[in-house]
Design brief:
With 312 residues, the chain is α/β, with parallel strands linked by helices. The chain is built from twelve helices and eight strands. Strands 1, 2, 3, 4, 5, 6, 7 and 8 form an eight-stranded mixed beta sheet that branches.
């Protein structure tokens, strides 16, 4: 019997699109055997493994976005320049810190938000053991000390999701077993290989990362920092996605990772791409294992990872 694994990538608010994909799979009665996620993909995947229902995950996330503590993150800090929506994340952050540096002494800390605030935010995550979840689940984090990628397959769900989504510089690293853990997207954009580790024999990946666009020459250091990060993420995605059997890319590439106010639109984008590919998803689930292996060999020989256009 086939075992479908879902790999959910990081992308901040764009990762809410994962909910739409899962809603369609629920509607179509397509059984998911295992899920691995990083960052927002870990949060959505972990909640789905806990609730067993994409609709319940949607209700949970939409309610959480309205929480004043969480709303502070993407309105007070990052959307302060709402009148200038094209400003880059790094520019917004540095502008904000520059204005309030003397009061906050932010550069003397490991992160913008202190651990007390972060703990308060993550109290909404169910404090259960990963082993008790109805679906096999794991979350990716990155150890700042060793540089190694960590795959949480057991232990506290809350700790795993907190570590996997600890955006460097924004949330404090999570101390765990002599490790200092941050956002899994630092080392793993879409955790395809890791979902195989927990038993999947065919992989559906959902990629919500940005694409490389044609841009004008960099004007300042912020342009360079943002651009190099974009390029690294893009090529890391291509490398990791080569092991996926099917890749879904919701139309969210133009949105910022803090566009939580567009949650309904983002979820809808996930539903749309899943509906458009439902026949391919069913084919993947029902594909004979030997024929699937042949498909993989052919794809590898052709060097194809369903590469997206470099300019969109």
């Amino acid at each position: 019997m086939s075992k479908l694994g879902i790999a959910l990538g990081g992308g901040g608010a764009r990762g809410i699109a994962h909910i739409g994909v899962l809603k369609v799979l629920d509607d179509e009665k397509i059984k998911i055997d295992s899920i691995t996620g990083c960052s927002m993909g870990a949060i959505v995947g972990g909640l789905y493994a806990y609730f067993g229902s994409a609709v319940q995950v949607e209700d949970f996330i939409l309610q959480a976005i309205k929480d004043p503590k969480i709303e502070l993150i993407y309105t007070d800090v990052f959307n302060k320049d709402a009148a200038k929506p094209n400003k880059y994340y790094f520019e917004r952050l540095i502008n904000y810190l520059g204005e309030r540096l003397n009061k906050l002494k932010a550069l003397g800390r490991l992160s913008y938000f202190e651990e007390e605030i972060t703990n308060d935010i993550f109290k909404i995550i169910p404090d259960v053991q990963i082993e008790s979840l109805g679906i096999k689940f794991s979350a990716i984090a990155t150890d700042l000390i060793s540089g190694e990628e960590i795959n949480f397959t057991k232990g506290s769900l809350r700790t795993a999701l907190k570590a996997s989504s600890a955006i460097p510089g924004i949330f404090p690293p999570v101390e765990f077993e002599k490790m200092l853990l941050v956002d899994g997207s630092t080392s793993e954009s879409v955790p395809v290989a890791r979902v195989k580790e927990i038993g999947a024999d065919r992989i559906l990946a959902v990629d919500v990362s940005r694409r490389i666009n044609e841009i004008h020459p960099a004007k300042n250091i912020l342009d360079i920092l943002y651009r190099t990060g974009d390029i690294s993420s893009y090529h890391l995605s291509l490398l990791r996605l080569q092991e996926a059997d099917l890749i879904l890319r919701p139309e969210v590439k133009k949105l910022s990772w803090v566009d939580f106010d567009k949650a309904a639109e983002i979820i809808s984008a996930g539903e749309t791409v899943a509906r458009e590919n439902i026949d391919r998803i069913r084919k993947l689930v029902n594909r004979n294992s030997y024929l699937l292996q042949i498909d993989r060999i052919i794809k590898k020989l052709m060097g194809s990872a369903e590469t997206p256009p470099k300019t969109e």
